[in-house]
Amino acid sequence: MRNTPLPFAAPMVGQEEIDGVVACLRSGWLTTGLKVKEFEGAFAEYVGARHALAVNSCTAALHLALEAHGIGPGDEVITTPMTFTATAAVIEHLGARPVFVDCDPVTLNLDPSAIPERITRRTRAILPVHFAGQSCDLDAIRALAAAHGLAVVEDAAHAIPTRYQGRMIGSHGNASCFSFYATKNLTTGEGGMVVTDDDALAARMRLMHLHGMSRDAWKRYMQNGAWSYEILAPGFKYNMTDIAAAIGLGQLKACDAFHLRRLEIARRYDAAFAEIDGIVSPKVADPFGHAWHLYVIQVDEARFGIGRDEFIEQMVQRRIGISVHFIPLHIQPYYRDRYGFAPSDYPNALAAYQRIVSLPIYARMTDADIDDVIEAVLEVAGVHQR
Ligand SMILES: Cc1ncc(COP(=O)(O)O)c(C=O)c1O
Q1: Which residues span the domain enclosing 160?
Q2: pLDDT for 256-276, tens place per residue?
Q3: Is the pLDDT of residue 378 over 80?
Q4: Mean pLDDT computed over every residue of the chain
Q5: pLDDT value at position 306?
């Protein structure tokens, strides 16, 4: 048993990030400026996108992307209930309606075959989530979108670096929205990035991310910069600070190494749990293409001997941090009451929810931490297996 609790997630911050932040603090420029520009350029290059816009959250990125596609009152956006509230909340913010489509029971990603029956004349976009860091079936989603004239906005909060058919998420021509929240694969504390290849979409998002102003603060206050600006729209306050971008630049350099470490942890879990009856490890066609933001097992009560809730209890007793991703949105009071959902309306999301547990997986974990997680799972299995 561990002496100290193992956190469910913890950031890995190196000297580069610390030096970057100190330099930024000393520079006299704290908010959006050259560091943000540099981070945007480096990120666009890393994922292979034409444009990257740094913002202060993935939620902001999603909101901007939908707004730039002209989504508004009366519109419908197809998405998954197996996600964080932000994915659907931004649709609500625009006065539009999230239309849930059930997830695939194995990958927990939006099931493209279930999309057509939910398309109406009000549908304007599809918002898939790359659950846990495993890519959705983008070809199928894009084909449906093209056939029905719909936009695709990807919730790529978990998907850095995720590859679909060998190419990075962010390089497939849609608006893709990444999260740099403290627990994410690449963190800036709080932050996000939206990338796209579409010039007009990028221009609209850039305008709206900072008050709808025609010139940003850096340009206005630079020496010889003009003091004048125009308000072209009632925009949002979604810009990233240079302090955050300095962290992001260091994190981006380490991103591939972080990924390899998470991949290694996933492989160790896969091997260790393969023999445990009733612990179902993630099924992944392309392990390298998976960002491994989350390692989500399913506890099959009939075979394992105890259910998910009891399993969590036992892991917590062994001082292992765990989490559940996600409580499906259709059973959350707001969405349930507003749209009159029954839990059984999305049977795959509901069934998965009753079985899922996310185990710790992050670059900062030591070999001993990984051993502790495995040992705890084996112990719980040993006590309860029939
Ligand atoms: C699937 C998904 N989408 C969006 C978000 C929102 O990200 P942020 O906290 O950067 O706004 C999260 C955050 O956890 C998430 O898991």
Answers
A1: 15-252
A2: 999 999 999 999 999 999 999
A3: yes
A4: 96
A5: 95
Same domain, 248 and 265: no
Residue type, 214: S
Measured from the CB, is residue 87 less than 6 Å from ligand 1?
yes
Tell me the C-alpha distance between 312 and 291, whole Å.
24
> How many angstroms separate the alpha carbon of residue 157 from the centre of ligand 1?
5
Tell me, in angstroms, the distance from the centre of ligand 1 to residue 189's CA: 13
Residue with tokens 């936009």: 151
- Distance in angstroms (rounded) separating the CA atoms of residues 112 and 92: 22
Torsion over CA: 222, 224, 225, 226 (sign): positive
Residue ending a domain, choose from 252, 275, 303:
252
Minimum-distance ligand 1 atom for the alpha carbon of 190: 10
Return all residues near 228 (Cβ < 8 A) that are at least 6 apart: 215
Residue closest via CA to ligand 1's atom 16 equals 84
Tell me if the bond preceding 273 is cis, omega within 30° of 0. no
| 123 in Cβ contact with 352 (< 8 Å) | no
Backbone φ and ψ of 275, nearest 5°: -90, -5
